[in-house]
Write a structure and sequence with these properties.
The protein is α/β, with parallel strands linked by helices and about 675 residues long. The chain has 18 helices and 27 strands.
Length: about 675
């Protein structure tokens, strides 16, 4: 008897591009306000930049390793998919959004579109604001091709004639300074009742010849190179991770080139010259029909005065019944846990907890993990103030939070300067857990309070991402939180927490066990055996195969996976009991929830378990990060999570997509369907 053919999982990189295709589809939705549709275009550009900087760069590196399973054919296939997606992005921008903006009297004027008065204004702007910052470099043996930083915008020009010294040096490079705004709003007096803009590249292009007196610009193009930007340090060879990362930040911008973008009118000889300079194959060339780097159009969105073309403002609700304003959060938590559902509920109670802890003389110790807080953060300012007031402050700062390294290094140094104890987690493992713990003296005893979350300690993203957080004084959970902090500081032997799961130690194995428990129930004839998992990504092969076994036993499985999913659902006899959906709406879906049902409720056993977690179901999260998951034991809170954060998403017929076995997604329903996010906004507004 021949062994069954192993199931081929979906390609991770193509799954990431498929997620971005879902995001791009938001730009085509007529029920989304016009400027928000343009913002989705910008989001896709930003996502693709990171895709090339990290995922595609890693894929290229793996393809060069003879021991790797990644082949050059895999690279070509993903590259072609990226080309197709980017071409579609520019088509939507040019053919759909630009005409609609024009109807709203919002215009981006090229040089040919500008009238004489507008050209005079642009020329004065160029001479006053732009030209003094431009340094054109003519290439010759003494002026070699310049260092081009990651994602920095440049012009390349081919010039006529000879240079001032009679030499036939034809190629020149002009760097576009990053300090200049990329979108310039023209005065209302010159705009004829419209909101008119000029792109910085258009301003430079119109006056490019002025930079080369006595020579003509025969041809030119904008270009931008994307480089491998994953910050790598040899953690076994360094003595101080912070210092090594600080020095590494300066070289990150000059990693190996992986993508070259030029405008579609770029002459072949110039694009071939650039490919040669960057050591790139022809497949790495991306010709775009419009501005290179659409991310910068966020500046147009921000400058445009048109409230009706944006989402209506949404103000998160304060959980008044559970946390009355202006009353002690500590006193409230003594009566029970408080669950917060962001962004529908305010993140301010978390800030208020820390503020209260700083001001309370009975609070002795504050501990917090820091992953992505942002360059400005009231929470970090409060930790600094707590240390100044003599409280014991411990901050676990993750220095390798990708693209937030510099901000986190700065916070670490500021905290250390006021006497806070700063640790950087465990070498080789990112600290991704989201924990805040306060120890308070009460009646001669010490009592702990904690906040545990699926999301970051960042009030700004808490208004844009869906996440769940719990404020608790539960003795077991707070003791577990304290154990995690001690583990990170002391590097002692792992001791299993009472309730929490901790990666890389026991989270993965416990998830496998719970899936096995549901599988056994289904095999035993329990018809309601059920798994619902809401995560950002599903790429861990062992968890995928455990899900498949559970589904094949007869359990119904619903997966709500925002981003990359490598499990192919709907294969007859293999994964036909699994439905994978993705929800892409106004807010970024970010909460991680794992629900398992294996029996009907009976005394001493609810027959189900629900965990909230900081971790996605990826190998890196389970084995190379410090992550926490915690059970929601109170039936009332568990039901609330199900009612608000799972069920609505399983019935969404407006923002939801369903994944097919081939890795392609189809949108469920249409613009007149039911949106889980919109329903929750209405509920909390009321």
């Amino acid at each position: 008897m021949t062994a069954p053919t192993p199931l081929k999982l979906l390609n991770r990189e193509q799954a990431i591009l498929e997620f971005n295709r879902r995001v791009l589809a938001q730009a085509q939705r007529e029920d989304v306000p016009l400027l928000e549709r343009l913002r989705y275009i910008c989001i896709v550009s930003s996502n693709l930049d990171e895709f090339f900087e990290v995922r595609f760069a890693d894929m290229l590196e793996a393809a060069r390793d003879p021991l790797s399973t990644v082949t050059s054919q895999d690279v070509d296939r993903v590259g072609r998919a990226a080309h197709t997606l980017i071409d579609e992005q520019y088509r939507i921008f040019n053919e759909q959004l630009t005409p609609l903006l024009l109807k709203q009297r919002i215009v981006v004027l090229n040089h040919a579109d500008r009238d004489e008065a507008q050209r005079r204004w642009v020329q004065k702007y160029f001479e006053r604001e732009v030209r003094p910052l431009l340094v054109p470099v003519g290439l010759d043996p003494a002026h070699p091709f310049p260092q081009v930083a990651n994602k920095s915008l440049h012009f390349i020009a081919r010039l006529s004639g000879k240079d001032a010294f009679g030499r036939d040096n034809r190629i020149a490079i002009v760097k576009v300074p990053r300090v200049l705004p990329r979108v310039i709003k023209l005065p209302a007096s010159l705009s004829d009742g419209r909101q008119a803009y000029a792109l910085l590249t258009s301003v430079i292009r119109a006056h490019l010849e002025d930079l080369f007196p006595g020579r003509k610009v025969e041809s030119f193009s904008q270009f931008r190179v994307t480089r491998d930007s994953d910050l790598e340090v040899d953690e076994e060879e360094i003595a101080n991770l912070r210092h090594a990362l600080r020095s590494g930040l300066t070289t990150r911008h000059f990693g190996r080139a992986v993508r070259l973008e030029v405008v579609n009118s770029c002459p072949t000889d110039l694009s071939e010259f650039l490919l040669e300079q960057f050591g790139l194959p022809p497949a790495a060339l991306y010709r775009v029909n419009g501005p290179v780097n659409l991310v910068r159009l966020n500046e147009l969105i921000d400058q445009t005065d048109a409230a009706h073309l944006r989402f209506r403002p949404f103000e998160p609700a304060w959980p008044t019944r559970r946390l009355p304003r202006h009353k002690s959060i500590f006193e409230k938590l003594k009566k029970g846990d408080v669950l917060l559902h962001h962004p529908f509920e305010s993140f301010e109670p978390v800030v208020q907890l820390l503020r209260e802890a700083v001001e309370d003389p009975d609070v002795l110790v504050i501990k917090q993990t820091i992953y992505r807080t942002g360059a400005k953060s009231e929470l970090m300012d409060l930790l600094i103030e707590a240390a100044r007031r003599g409280k014991e402050v411990m901050a676990v700062v993750e220095l390798k939070a990708r693209f937030d390294e510099e901000a986190n290094i700065n916070w670490a140094e500021r905290l250390e300067a006021v006497g806070a104890q700063v640790v950087y987690g465990i070498v080789g493992y990112k600290t991704h857990a989201k924990l805040l713990m306060v120890t308070r003296r009460e009646g001669g005893k010490l009592r702990r309070y904690a906040h545990i979350s699926t999301g970051n300690y960042n009030p700004k993203t808490a208004r844009l991402y869906t996440d769940l957080g719990m404020l608790t004084a539960d003795a077991d959970l707070t003791s577990d939180a304290d154990s995690v902090f001690r583990q990170l500081a002391s590097l002692g032997k792992f001791k299993a927490p009472r309730r929490m799961l901790l990666a890389p130690f026991n989270m993965h194995s416990r998830m496998i066990e719970l899936l096995g428990q549901v599988e056994a129930a289904a095999l035993g004839g329990y018809k309601a055996a059920r798994v619902v998992v809401k995560i950002n990504a599903l790429t861990d092969a062992e968890l995928i195969h455990a899900l498949l076994r559970t589904a094949q036993a007869g359990a119904k499985i619903d997966l709500i996976v925002r981003g990359a999913c490598m499990l192919p659902p709907g294969l007859p006899g293999v994964s036909d009991n699994i439905v994978v959906r993705s929800v892409v709406g106004r807010f970024l879906e970010h909460s991680r929830i794992c629900y398992f049902r294996w029996a009907a409720p009976r005394e001493g056993d609810d027959g189900e378990a629900l965990f909230l977690s900081s971790a996605d179901w990826m190998s890196r999260n389970m084995f190379r990060r410090i992550e926490v998951a915690w059970p929601v034991l109170e039936a009332r809170l568990r039901q609330r999570v199900i009612d608000e954060a799972l069920q609505p998403y399983l019935h969404d017929t407006k923002d939801a997509w369903q994944l097919g076995p081939d890795g392609r997604s189809l949108r469920i329903g249409g613009n007149d369907g039911i949106s889980a996010q919109q329903a929750l906004m209405r509920r909390y507004s009321e």
